[in-house]
Amino acid sequence: MQAKESKKYHHFSRSEWESFYRNGIPLLTEEELQEIKSFNDKISLQDVQDIYMPLTHLIKLYMNEYESLQQSKGLFMQKYQETPPFIIGIAGSVAVGKSTTARVLQMMLSRIFKRHNVHLITTDGFLHPNDYLIKHDMMDQKGFPESYDMERLIGFLEDVKRRKSPLQIPIYSHEVYNIIPGEFQEIDEPDILIVEGINVLQLPANQQIYISDFFDFSIFVDAEPETIEKWYLDRFEALLDSAFLEPNNYYYSYATGPREEALEMARDVWKRVNLRNLEEYILPTRHHAELILRKQANHQISDVYLTKY
User: What is the pLDDT of residues 144-157, one digit of tens each?
Assistant: First the structure.
């Protein structure tokens, strides 16, 4: 973290962070945790206890203040003010573990707020389909700001805040590496919405409204680029091991060919696409997050940064 950026944040070691909330026990079992963690990611119940229990307690405090503010607005306007859904954004690089963080938070918040509907979406569903990207010569920019249908994503978030329901968003499949035509995820009356994606804190060009304008709390999952590259390549190899019996899988041709050629291709994609996206578009948005979770090579979160203002 750069010196100028670090001045914006309180910095806590893992042991300091876990000391902020020691009440209660993990709200999920080891079996549930292993079921919801991302492919090839690593997380333990100790991580839940040390990192995510204090984090969910902090989010609860933010939600209490948010609801109080909405009630105060209603009193000021002398009319009933329905509280819009509380939206949490989770950003970070490809392969850094955003999805695991998002799913753990969804399950824990669902159990803390038993009367609330807690939904989770990924912004992958708002990527332009591959045929669109090919037509516009943008396949090498997949994941870059211009590869998303930002107008549709912002419209969806506006509808969520206005409590329009039910809503549908496209489904993206990592197996086929594309949007699935005619299939949708339905979002029905969320009270809490978690939005996970590499682009959620980015400031796209030619937009009057940013995605982050809709967030009431935001998290950036961080690690050294060299560490993320290793996780990316490890995940790619694991995907090859599971794809060689599935001809329709995007990775099938790589899984059935020479392994070293496939890995060379993956290293090239990392440097040419994912690393460039990280350095040019993702890392520059880190300072927009309320909270930064810093991970080490063993996947453990070692440091937490909480914004001062």
Answer: 999 999 999 999 99
